[in-house]
# Entry
Amino acid sequence: MTSEDLKRQLEVTQGGHVIPEAALESYATQLDHYERLLREAASRLTPDDEPAAFTAMLATQAGPEHDDG
Amino acid sequence: MVEASEDLVVTADAISRGDLSAEAATERSLMRLEAEGRSLGAVVTLTPDPALEAARACDRARAAGRRLGPLHGVPLAHKDLFYRAGRRCTFGSPILADHAPETTATVLTRLDAAGAVDLGTLALSEFAFSPTGYNRHFGHPKNPWNPAHVPGGSSSGPAIAVASGHVAGALGTDTGGSVRHPAAACGVTGLKPTLGRVSRHGVGPLSASLDCVGPIARTARDCARLLNVISGADARDATASPLAVPDYEAGLDGRLDGVTIAIPQDYYLEVLADELHPILEESRAALRARGARLVQTRAPDMALANTLGQMVMAAEAARVHAPWLAARRGDYAEVVRSRIEPGLFVSARQYLDSLSLRSHVLREYLDTAFAEADLVHLPAFTIPVPTIDETTADPAKAAPVLGALTHCTRGINFLGLPALSLPAGFTANGLPAAFQLVGRPFAEALLLKAGHAFQCETDWHRREPPSAAAATP
# Structure
């Protein structure tokens, strides 16, 4: 990913941009790092995984003191 | 007439008995916030007229034999991120200097119903970013133990005000440690509840998947009282958990028999400053003295949780900030802007993958860091509380310092787990040191029980910074 990629993305999503080149370059580096880490981790995912599983997991871990009545 | 104590529960009980009037307690808090609070940079907006009127109403109610609730007449003030209809709420930014919401946060409504008196709003980092309290626009708040040092952030005002005895309790928000950082740096107790335990309706958003509302107070018992009042389902916040709210004060018996506390190694301890090791060991000994069993476990590499959390936070913050970034980019401090703007480029696939991985990361953490234990014992910071200069003068030198402040806190938000920061001593620079206890999902009752037991064994939470000690009658 390059700063040019990010500029094009801003043109599409924001209709322009006010972010200086140096900042865009720094963000591109950061986003590449995110993507590398995410790709490694995403091998754990199956098509059945979804964000809502997380809150469901929190709730199922709650102790009996949270039961009504 | 009894003077207001810094303990919230003691103050509440004194007012309930009639040993202290709500009006006197409110006048005292207002006076101290106006004088010392402002000089420490802890105050944004005080509203003395409605506060005193509410306090007098509490006193009239008591005289008529009515108790409004468990916080009857107790003066409180909160981070300037909680909406009260008609009162300005700045989020710590000049962009919202004149922002006056039309609604009131559910947590404030619940505190009102419990009889609390709202004094106004307290300082925070710009848009709740920054673990130090840094705010380019409103000035850097100061640590009451030594004004050259950071008070921690982003809920800096609440921790300063509680540590200094200006108020007995305050609400903050915690997205990556923002209740625990200032509580740790100022030597008070701070609780980040489980994601969803407390409603966020009417709370300025940073990151919907990570934001939690939590109390800062002198003691774990005080935090329990506040959590009792603010927790629970909310028709105005679909993300608030419908799970029943137990009585968090009921189990505070000072004992930890049968409780196992894990000490994860590796990630948390390998970067810990030497002088913090004996302080943490003493805190573990105090827990052991109260009956807890301590075991070593393995910490998973938290780099993944931290990075996924960062991506989610940036994407969600960018959604909130996109219009302001386009129109008023110059009104953001560089350090704040540079944490939000990358979120403009996070793709839907990256965002959803990050959130879908969350349950896997939580499972791994519960299986490794917790193993068979009930709680986890972690450092709060991996370094002593730094000076303001160390975190602002040179960005290159500041980066590792800021990283050390969030090293042990940020990943806990991605995991959604509850965590309690407890004062545990002092480092050589004279600043407070602290540790965290982390619980399993919705284990706030056990966390607070452990915190209370620790505070029955130690008196670090009783220490007062110089300004508070000088003001004590």
